[in-house]
């Protein structure tokens, strides 16, 4: 484990998938919060998670599209002010500061049934020979080892009564398209 800048780790990871994204007509947009706190983690394992999520996103957009990678701190600083963060309105278990990484795509989205099983080992929606069904379960394990969480939202299939895990990450998504993975890592 090492103290790292998440934005730098993600930039290094993007360089690993840029060629495949370009061949697949996929644009990668970076939306990083500046001056994020450094976080202690295994950068190689985080790279593995980001590569897997981006490769899955590319696969979900056979006609091309966009991957948007967003980083931010939670809780956010109060509007108009820097420095201390007012966390009094947050639930007790949500008062800790986190780095949030959102990876969104404009792909085909996924159904509620797929979302139920997406992190299970050997579960895959890909053709035989195209995947092992281990990628997302490994991502889940890596994030858990870092005391974080990973969630998936696919607004294409979200009902009006289904709250989105991260409304900022999914705002403006076109109905019928897209998936967002939200990774939440504690700042220690």
Structure description:
The protein is an alpha+beta fold. 30% of the residues lie in helices and 23% in strands. It contains five helices and seven strands, in the order βαββαββααβαβ. The chain is globular, with a radius of gyration of 16 Å. The longest helix is centred in the N-terminal third of the chain and has 18 residues, at 6-23. The protein has one domain (2-186): Heat Shock Protein 90 (2-Layer Sandwich), CATH 3.30.565.10. The strands form two sheets. Strands 2-4-5-7-6 form a five-stranded mixed β-sheet. The protein has a two-stranded antiparallel ribbon with strand order 1-3.
What is the gist of this entry?
The protein is α+β, with helices and mostly antiparallel strands and 188 residues long.
CATH class: Alpha Beta
Strand content: 15-25%
**Span between termini:** 12 Å
Architecture per CATH nomenclature, i.e. the level-2 architecture:
2-Layer Sandwich
Number of H/I helices = 5
> Could you say which overall geometry the principal axes of the C-alpha atoms support?
globular
The overall number of domains is 1
Question: What is the CATH homology-level superfamily?
Answer: Histidine kinase-like ATPase, C-terminal domain
Q: What portion of residues is helical?
A: 25-40%
Radius of gyration: 16 Å
Mean pLDDT: 77
Overall strand count = 7
Descriptive labels:
alpha+beta; two-stranded antiparallel sheet; 7 strands; 188 residues; single chain; 5 helices; Heat Shock Protein 90
